[in-house]
Write a structure and sequence with these properties.
By secondary structure, the protein is mainly beta. 10% of the residues lie in helices and 54% in strands.
């Protein structure tokens, strides 16, 4: 879906394409469009502590509970459980897993905010960042 929004400058718009997940949109007064990942059933999707231990021993990571692909530039931010991503003209994925949020960049770069650690990181094309549950 293409999302078009106003910026803070009169008559200027910005747009980006989003796919593969559900989200709730808000826009702040400074023109940043926030897309908070929504949906997904963490209780049903995430295994118990014992099952996680067995899964880790088998090297089978759990699939994303929810995810959202974005493609665009402008003042857009995707927000997962443990990380938020500010767009810098790119193609990226924000994926919430049971105990982490993984940001993967296919083209360009993004600014990731690791919410639990209160740390920022630039992630470039071909790389990922994982923010883990505290």
């Amino acid at each position: 879906m293409r999302l078009v929004s106003a910026t803070t400058r009169k008559g200027i718009t910005q747009f980006a394409d989003f796919a593969g997940g559900r989200f709730v949109v808000t826009q702040s007064g400074d023109g940043i469009v926030n897309l908070r990942l929504s949906g997904g059933d963490f209780e049903a999707s995430c295994p118990s502590a014992r099952a996680r231990t067995l899964s880790a021993a088998q090297k089978n990571p759990s699939p994303p509970v929810r995810k959202l692909w974005g493609n665009g530039k402008g003042r857009f931010r995707t927000i997962g459980r443990y990380a938020s991503v500010a767009v810098r003209g790119t193609v990226w994925l924000t994926a919430d897993l049971c105990d982490s949020t993984v940001v993967t960049v296919r083209r360009g770069r993004v600014m990731v905010v690791d919410i639990p650690k209160r740390r920022r990181a630039i992630v470039t094309s071909g790389h990922s960042y994982t923010a883990v549950k505290p």
